[in-house]
Specification:
This protein has 7 helices and 17 strands. A 6-stranded antiparallel barrel has the order 12-15-14-13-16-17. A 5-stranded parallel beta sheet has the order 3-2-1-4-7, sandwiched between helices. It is of the alpha/beta class. The protein is globular, with a radius of gyration of 22 Å. 41% of the residues are buried.
Length: 364
């Protein structure tokens, strides 16, 4: 998405920070202030009519003594992020809303509003770092120092226009409890606030299936089948299941059974063993490489390269070979089989701890 341009002179001492009201973004603001930055907070309202999050952001902005911009992006968020979420589940995919939101909503708006107030830098409370290659003058996302909290996987689709102006103040923080201690020391009211839920637009008292059903995106009932196509029972709609799922299937086979494939064409869900979930080869589509700022593999890689790759946020990077395939897809071959790569999730490529790029996992 094209960024809004500005003729205003941008101040490199001024930074616009995504301020959610949580302890991470609040402490990120503290770090920036201590480094001498003039910080302005920016709160994204993604749920129309909801005010609780904005109130929390206002409170911590007052405690930090910084100005706060509250911007209602609920309409665009619904059109881009929520619609993708609903359609993905209905077509047998497992979406990751943050991967869609970050480049198209969150960081796009941060750049636009930074330009408007004359701030050169933007920042968030993500646990990641920015790496600048001094030879090519290209910018990359780098894994955070806190391996357990590292969020680089979610950020692989950010382009040079964002990366070149982005600061991650928590990137070198190795311990979340230290972040909370700093918040306590500075008398911040949200020091013990629980971490936010993964799906920010779904209430804590509502699960994702109920959310989908309430919006009329339910899929019809269908058959559970085995790998040979034999019918094992009935399922409640493909939107109710994800690859690798074992619990909540509502079917007893006398042995552990996992969802190994979801077919939106036949409306069948295949059940199998844990071994059936292990894959050494997958394909990705709609790829993005930070260096080329597009789906084009950087020229020095050629049409194929070796790297480390992650097939989901919580998985560990694994040795892989990436090769250009037909239709702008990438073929990824792993040295060791990966468990339950899921269509709709992302496969992210790393050179050491530097994010090269990635793409969405295709149907098998």
């Amino acid at each position: 998405m094209q960024m809004m341009m500005t003729t205003m002179t941008l101040n490199k001492n001024k930074v616009l920070l995504g301020l959610s009201g949580g302890v991470d973004s609040t402490t990120a603001a503290l770090f920036l202030q201590k480094k001498g930055f003039d910080v302005t907070g920016f709160y994204f309202e993604v749920n129309e009519g909801r005010t609780e999050g904005a109130k929390e952001a206002k409170k911590v902005a007052e405690e930090l003594n910084i100005p706060l911009i509250i911007f209602d992006t609920s309409k665009k968020f619904k059109e881009i992020v929520i619609e993708n979420f609903l359609n993905s589940y209905k077509t047998g995919k497992t979406p990751n809303p943050c991967v869609i939101c970050n480049p198209q909503i969150k960081f796009n708006l941060l750049i636009e509003h930074a330009n408007q107030i004359g701030a050169y830098y933007i920042a968030t409370g993500h646990y990641a770092r920015i790496y600048r290659n001094s030879e090519t003058e290209k910018y990359f996302v780098q894994r955070g120092a806190n391996e357990k909290k590292d969020q680089s996987y979610m950020l692989y689709r950010l382009g040079q226009d964002v990366l070149s102006r982005l600061i991650f103040p928590l990137g070198m923080s190795k311990d979340k409890e230290v972040i909370r201690e700093i918040a306590h020391e500075n008398h911040l009211s949200n020091a013990e606030k629980a971490d936010s839920q993964e799906i920010c637009f779904i209430d804590d008292n509502c699960n994702y299936v109920d959310f989908i059903d309430a919006r009329g995106y339910s899929a019809p009932f269908g058959n559970f089948v085995d790998s040979d196509g034999n019918i094992l029972g009935r399922h409640r709609g493909i939107h109710c299941y994800t690859i690798g799922q074992r619990k909540g299937l509502g079917i007893a086979l006398g042995k552990p059974a996992f969802v190994t494939q979801i077919d939106p064409v036949t409306n069948n869900i295949t059940l199998g063993s844990n071994d059936d979930l292990m894959k050494t080869e997958i394909y990705s589509y709609d790829n993005f490489f930070a260096e080329s700022n597009s789906d084009v593999i950087p020229s020095h890689f050629g049409d194929e390269f070796d790297c480390y790759a992650k097939v989901r946020y919580a998985s560990k990077p694994a040795k892989a070979h990436v090769q250009k395939s037909s239709g702008n897809k990438m073929r990824i071959t792993f040295e060791d089989a990966q468990r339950a790569p899921s269509p709709g999730q992302s496969v992210v490529f790393y050179d050491g701890d530097i994010v090269i790029g990635g793409g969405f996992i295709d149907n098998f």
